[in-house]
Amino acid sequence: AWSVQESCTIYYPVVILWPPPGHSFSVDRTKPPARRVRVALECLCSGEQLLGQTCLLHASGGQLPRDQDWYLLDTLCTGSYLDVEKVARWVQRMVASAWVLLPHSLHCQITVLPSSQSCSFQLTSTSGMQITIEMALAVQQ
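RESULT FIELD:
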């Protein structure tokens, strides 16, 4: 969705979050706060063995690898659940870091707007035109 105001256009994209390989997301409605997103390990034994790798759920000795996927889960989760504030901060950092690598960054400045529950950015061009982006983060069931 989008809206246009006097000097500012606002975009409202929905960004679907996907779990890393060997994990799944499910919405937990049993405990408050309602609609928490649980992160669980999945057995990938048949597919992983074909690639010569170990399934994360059945890793030897109960030791889980400290790879990028696990770092990401440590960064985005509190316990077994996605943490909305951690996810929002992580997305804000990633977008701001990626923006400076784009050619448009020479003509348009990005500002992360304060929010702990969503991802909001303001782009300001050298001519003063402003675009606001309010990203809604979601998981697919």
